[in-house]
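Pipeline run #58 for the internal structure catalog. This entry was flagged by the ingest filter as a single-chain record with no existing model, so it goes straight to prediction. Upstream metadata was stripped on purpose; only the residue string is passed forward. Reviewer on rotation: M.T. Logging verbosity set to normal.
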Amino acid sequence: MNAELITIGDELLIGQTVDTNGSWMGEQLNLLGIKVSQISSIRDDRTHILSSLDIAINRSQLVLITGGLGPTNDDITKNTLCEYFDSTLTVNTQVLEKITAYFSSRNLKMLQVNSDQALLPDNCEVLHNSRGTASGMWFEKNKVIFIALPGVPYEMKGIFLDAIVPKLKDKKLVSNVVNKTVKTQGIGESFLAEIIKDWEDEINRSGLKLAYLPSPGIVKLRISAFGGDEKILSQRIEYFIAQLKELIPDYIYGYEKDKIEEVVGNLLRKRKSTLSLAESCTGGNIAHMITGISGSSDYYKGSIVAYSNELKESFLNVDSNSIISHGAVSKQVVEQMALGANKQFNTDYSIASSGIAGPNGGSDEKPVGTVWIAVANKNRVISKKLTLGDNRERNILISSLSALNMLRLMLIK
């Protein structure tokens, strides 16, 4: 089945609101084995909505629409759908009773615009909303299914999971699809593709599908298998993942929704080890990532953001001669920072960062994006130089991810 998604709202087009509905529905449809061919965001405009529906009906078998079903005058989707499907708005007594109970249970006065939420097209199948007042609507025209949903994500997701998924399954419009995502850090997309080229060719020959999903500091590999028994599909995917582990063992840090900071935290907890940080160019971002995980107090002791050379020397025992000779952004200094954090916080492991995050401050010798990272334990210290771009936010994120992956490798080796 071929599907497309239409999200309605001027706020989406001017950047005031990010369209999370489209991405979420796309993910859910993929899990059902339904191919999404297009996601469009359009204005709250009658003519635009009608033309979009006319285009969709000629190329898709399933069209999902979100937005414009609220109680205010600017929400015109319901009236426009009535026009498109030759409907008349009539009061749905069951929906009206639910809306009345909704306001009564909250001791709120129900206005006419709220009551009007029970006005629904007379030829649609109503999809009840247990989380709000805007009902979903199921239409069928020219053998194409159109589903209209409220734009509020919480309400849209509830109707989708409670009503739409069971109905699609009952109509046998879904097929088995199994996905698994492998998450890598420390290697760019093009270099990764070169290393796993033969493996990827075998994936394609076997009928599976591989997708590269790059983001700053991370490349995700999603393997998909379609049709047949779900258990067998999963086994086929695991067979190829086992091969991938042999090809790129140092770069794979997790799967699906794993976060690298959580993976590292679990390793530290398992070893009953502690961690401290000495951050300069990352400005506390590594600490923020680590403490974003519940239970991080089991292994994380604390950190210092040593931005000035004075603090590097006084608190982390960095030799002033090293700063003079090599500069604060250097292998020598960042390694001393890591060792100094280990000693000051009395931890088993430590991470240090020092760099030129940008967009200003670089030189010919050390351009913007030059970053040094070090990881230390009681017995050794290792360091790595990164050469990044001039985007400060991106440099901080990639440096933080790289530092955590270095610690992960030290822990598992």
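catalog note: Residues 177-255 form a domain with the Alpha-Beta Plaits fold (CATH 3.30.70.2860).
catalog note: The mean pLDDT is 95.
status: ready for reviewer M.T.
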